[in-house]
TrEMBL record:
<keyword id="KW-0808">Transferase</keyword>
<dbReference type="Pfam" id="PF00534">
    <property type="entry name" value="Glycos_transf_1"/>
</dbReference>
<protein>
    <submittedName>
        <fullName>Glycosyltransferase family 4 protein</fullName>
    </submittedName>
</protein>
<feature type="domain" description="Glycosyl transferase family 1">
    <location>
        <begin position="204"/>
        <end position="348"/>
    </location>
</feature>
<dbReference type="GO" id="GO:0016757">
    <property type="term" value="F:glycosyltransferase activity"/>
</dbReference>
<dbReference type="GO" id="GO:0009103">
    <property type="term" value="P:lipopolysaccharide biosynthetic process"/>
</dbReference>
<dbReference type="InterPro" id="IPR001296">
    <property type="entry name" value="Glyco_trans_1"/>
</dbReference>
Length: 382
């Protein structure tokens, strides 16, 4: 306890991440972010987390309880949308958001904002006023691909911030000292140990299995995946697993009836259940139109699923065709078919070499590596 009082290192996190208060008085939020912040408690003694009160997500299965009382929650009224009314509501909400965020920044030395978002843009401007504080702005989207005006604006502002701000992005796309490439964590020590065990059972069997993990929509390439398997005839293809959900799920299930291979739509799955899908999958498919760096690629690499992914953003810094996976060039729909055909003829020894290589690369996506960089490269805490 004396060490805790002596250190008392606090972090303020400002985001638009969805948080809800359930009927039992417990806060719940998007699982991967909850786990990320919980692991950061190895660096900080207390975290105050500002997020959006997304009441409609109360039954979202991807939301988990914030069980550690060292994470203090502050809720902002949810804003967003595409209509003119939505935009007016966003503008009207800024003074109140500014007041709440500013009061908490005053009480903290270390501040972390998660962009692109409306709260994060407020933090960007406040960082120009509080030069004695250390700001870490995490930009989650692609730093180079086409984006909306609002996203482009935030990228521009981030590129102009002062030396008291560190900006972390997906990929090595800037020469500025305070803009650094930074991996997002998704693996703990249990995942690494389980992955090592799973790798021992990996083989390129007579039947090759594929998986997709993410939102079921065209931007993630679900249409392209279904179209590809509709137009490929091979006795080597085993099962195709889709993990994730959306209002289009029933539509995609109907489309999958035109495919001659076993196709399973699992909907949302708990993390341990997703690991079982990785275990039986030889390849993970992600023919996205736009991405930062999806965590599911790191997860797949850890559990022996070779990535077949779009050549966008910084993905080619980790995946190289015919070295440890396959990059899909544009036009994605056409080239995905060719890549799947190519992977079906992959030699098993080469496949196992890729599996082993990817497992080693996946170390960069561990929480321990993430915490080390947060402490030593971003906030430089002694």
């Amino acid at each position: 306890m004396s060490e805790y009082i002596q250190r008392n290192i606090k972090l303020l996190v400002v985001s638009d991440t969805g948080i809800v208060l359930d009927k039992d008085g417990n806060y719940k939020a998007f699982g991967p972010v909850v786990k990320e912040l919980k692991n950061l408690l190895d660096v900080f003694d207390e975290i105050t987390w500002i997020g959006f009160n997304r009441k409609k997500q109360i039954n979202n299965k991807s939301y988990v309880k914030i069980s550690d009382n060292r994470i203090k929650v502050v809720l902002l009224e949810e804003v967003g949308g595409n209509t003119i009314f939505d935009k007016i509501k966003i503008i009207i909400s800024y003074p109140k958001m500014f007041s709440i965020i500013n009061k908490l920044i005053i009480k903290h030395k270390y501040i972390h904002s998660r962009a692109p978002s409306n709260p994060s843009i407020i933090v960007m401007f406040l960082s120009l006023l509080y030069l004695d504080k250390v700001f870490w702005h995490k930009y989650a989207g692609s730093w180079i691909d086409h984006a909306s005006f609002f996203y482009k604006l935030q990228r521009f502002i981030l590129s102009k911030l002062r030396s008291n701000s560190v900006v972390s992005i997906n990929g090595k796309f800037s020469n500025k000292k305070n803009i650094i490439s930074f991996e997002n964590p998704c693996l703990d020590e249990k995942d690494r140990k389980l992955g090592k065990l799973i790798l021992k059972s990996k083989k390129l069997r007579d039947k090759v299995n594929f998986c997709f993990v993410g939102g079921l929509n065209s931007k993630k390439g679900v249409d392209d995946i279904l179209n590809a398997f509709k137009n490929i005839s091979s006795k080597k293809i085993g099962e195709i697993h889709f993990v994730g959900n959306s209002e289009l799920k029933d539509y995609y299930m109907k489309l999958s009836e035109e495919i001659s291979y076993k196709t399973v739509f699992h909907g949302f799955l708990a993390k341990d259940e997703i690991k079982k899908i990785y275990k039986i999958s030889n390849f993970i498919l992600l023919p996205s139109k736009s991405e930062g760096f999806p965590k599911v690629i790191g997860e797949g690499m850890n559990f022996g699923a070779i990535p077949i992914v779009s050549n966008i953003s910084c993905i080619n810094e980790y995946i190289n065709t015919n070295k440890n996976g396959y990059l899909i060039e544009k036009p994605i729909s056409e080239n995905l078919i060719n890549v799947i055909k190519e992977c079906l003829s992959l030699d098993e020894k080469i496949y196992l070499d890729w599996v082993d290589s990817n497992y080693k690369i996946a170390e960069k996506f561990t929480y321990s590596y993430y915490n080390y960089r947060v402490k030593n490269e971003i906030f430089k805490i002694n």
